[in-house]
Design a protein that fits this description.
Layout: H1 2-21, H2 25-40, H3 42-48, H4 55-66, H5 72-83, H6 90-104, E1 107-114, H7 120-134, E2 137-144, E3 152-156, E4 159-162, H8 165-176
Parallel strand pairs: 1-2
Antiparallel strand pairs: 1-3, 3-4
Helix pairs in contact: 1-2, 1-6, 2-6, 4-5
């Protein structure tokens, strides 16, 4: 996984620079998300990795599946990825592009795992505290994880804020076994 991200990063950065120059960050984000969703389909993965299928056939299949969602520059980008044998990187490229876009726009994503569903009020309060802490706009992605027992775990970039009961129990167990 880390290797794919390393290979995908230059592609994402190149597309980001192009999109930024042309003030088309949102359009490229949509294009890459569409291409990534198509490339993640199991049947499409098999076709894209099949050496018997030509790059032209793969491109035609990708474009016909995308419909009108792919502009000329998007087509050229897919052509480049196929020529370099990198079509499987589309999900990583899309993800990295969105990280660059959010950073440029002053937005950061927070992944929140909560033991129970959060009410709108709880989520708004959490987001407000995170915005104060990080001095940036926060977009929260919430999942429910009953294994946390109670509380929540928040991941913002490389930082993890563990306020879960499970995390506290694990910390207590570690302290007691020392």
């Amino acid at each position: 996984m880390a290797e794919l991200v390393t290979i995908a990063r230059p592609y994402a950065e190149a597309v980001f620079q192009l999109a930024k120059q042309e003030s088309q960050l949102a359009q490229w984000s949509d294009t890459l998300k569409l291409a990534a969703a198509i490339a993640q389909d199991e049947g499409m993965k098999a076709t894209l990795s099949n050496p018997r299928v030509s790059d032209a056939q793969k491109l035609d299949l990708l474009l016909s599946t995308a419909g009108s969602g792919m502009g000329e520059e998007g087509k050229n980008f897919l052509r480049l990825l196929l020529r370099n044998g990198r079509a499987e990187l589309l999900p990583e490229i899309s993800s990295l592009f969105d990280e660059l876009k959010e950073r440029e726009e002053g937005v950061v994503e927070a992944n929140v795992a909560s033991a129970f569903p959060l009410t709108d009020g709880q989520l708004n309060a959490l987001v407000a505290k995170l915005q104060v802490r990080y001095k940036r706009e926060i977009v929260a992605r919430v999942t429910v994880d009953p294994e946390l027992i109670g509380g929540a775990v928040v991941r913002v970039g490389d930082e993890v804020l563990d306020g879960s009961v499970r995390g506290k129990l694990e910390a207590m167990a570690a302290a007691l076994t020392k």
